[in-house]
Amino acid sequence: MTASLLALIATRIRQDVQSMHAYAIQDSAGMVKLDAMENPHRLPPALQAELGRRLGALALNRYPDGRVNDLRAALAAHAAMPAGFDLMLGNGSDELISLLALACDVPPSAANGFRPASILAPVPGFVMYAMSAQLQGLAFHGVPLTPDFELDEAAMLAAIAAHQPSIVYLAYPNNPTASLWDDAAIENIVEAQGAQGGLVVMDEAYQPFAARSYIDRVARHSHVLLMRTLSKFGLAGVRLGYMMGPRALIAEIDKVRPPYNISVLNCECALFALEHSEVFAAQALELRSQRAMLFEALRTLSGVTAFKSEANMILVRVPDAAKTFDGLKARQVLVKNVSKMHPLLANCLRLTVGTADENAQLLAALKASL
Fold it and tell me: CA of 325: how far to CAs of 311, 321, 335, 341, 365, in Å?
């Protein structure tokens, strides 16, 4: 780089941004791709052809129109959204998380006890909670889980009392631990956050694979938002997330959403998928079955600890995560090495649940790599 370009970066790009690392996507060419919690099943050929015809007929020369309201209505029906609630769309859940940080960045004042806005979440958890806080200039308070990846309820309640955060994120189930936390502990945290005047966001990205959802409890609270994505539903490439909450609250947050943030292609793909939701439900059922078989097989491997999962991934602890990751990669199986994300994840790998054939290849490669 030239001296002038270096000076430009040094003086015009935020220092904290310069110290960050961009989100890295692993090269998966020729690999069994089990690193990103994607649905491994593609659309059946007949549906591919039908979707292609619909997408080809779209007016790509026009900005998105009221068709996105058809999608909002379809998602509301699909999720059984409670009465009095509304729904906003994001370019994946990532955008919604960023928009929440933007909307809730309230400066200190007498009304909030002169406390700066902040975000709180259990850790290890989804990296975007902390990243969205950092990029918006907010403090992030991470509360460690217990060694077996359960919520530390007492620590969470103490942190809420000490920091009075604007937002508490609860991933249900969590990423990367795949745990579905205790409902009584969650309710106590929700109540405590409401009592001090903050928001709770229940992040249900992995809802298609979980035994429980918060949807039947969300209407009890005026300060709770429920967020989901179609990525784990089976449309990771479409990039579409959605968030439900009391109508007045959603209306305020929606004001910071960029115009036309959902493309006509994303919108039509999502509508098409919801019209054929039974296909994706069957895929989720198959993945839950594969998860159970994979979990039992992992438990038989010497030196491997597999943690119970309510998502389409399984967290495992191995004697040497780096060596095992490299061994798997050398055998054309790509997983996620999360061992450096947090001390609680020491020597842990995150394995996406794949097809029966992919899971068999994973197990064979894992046995050879340990």
Answer: 21, 6, 7, 15, 10
Closest CA to 246 of 194, 312, 314: 194
Per DSSP, the residues of 182-234 read -HHHHHHHHHHHHHTT-EEEEE-TTGGG-S--STTTGGG-TTEEEEEESIIII
| CA distances (Å), origin 269, targets 177, 238, 261, 329 | 30, 7, 15, 33
CA atoms within 13 A on the CB side of 206: 28
- Structure token digits, residue 58: 């779209």
SS3 25: coil
What pTM does this model have?
A: 0.94
Please check whether residue 190 is in contact with residue 200, taking contact to mean a CB–CB distance below 8 angstroms.
yes
From first to last of the 370 residues of the chain, give the pLDDT tens digit. Answer: 899 888 888 888 888 888 888 777 888 888 999 999 999 999 999 999 999 999 999 999 999 999 999 999 999 999 999 999 999 999 999 999 999 999 999 988 777 777 889 999 999 999 999 999 999 999 999 999 999 999 999 999 999 999 999 999 999 999 999 999 999 999 999 999 999 999 999 999 999 999 999 999 999 999 999 999 999 989 999 999 999 999 999 999 999 999 999 999 999 999 999 999 999 999 999 999 999 999 999 999 999 999 999 999 999 999 999 999 999 999 999 999 999 999 999 999 999 999 999 999 999 999 999 9
Edge-first strand listing for the sheet containing 348-352: 305-306, 313-317, 348-352, 336-337
- Domains in the chain with CATH codes: 13-42+278-369 (3.90.1150.10), 59-275 (3.40.640.10)
How far apart are the C-alpha atoms of 370 and 181, rounded to whole Å?
Answer: 30
